[in-house]
Amino acid sequence: MSVLIIAGFDPSGGAGIYRDISVFKSLGIPSESIPTALTVQTSEKVFGTSPIPIKNIKESLESLKKIRGVKIGMLYDEKVVKVVSDFLKERKPEYVVLDPIINSSSGYPLISEKGLKGMKKSLIPVSTFITPNLAEGKLLTGEKVPANIVKSLHCLGTKYVILTGIESKDDLFYDGKKIELIKGSKIDFSFHGSGCFYSSYLLGELILGSNPLQAAKKAKKAIEEYMEENRPKTDDG
Question: Of all helices (H) and strands (E), which one includes residue 231?
Answer without folding.
Answer: none
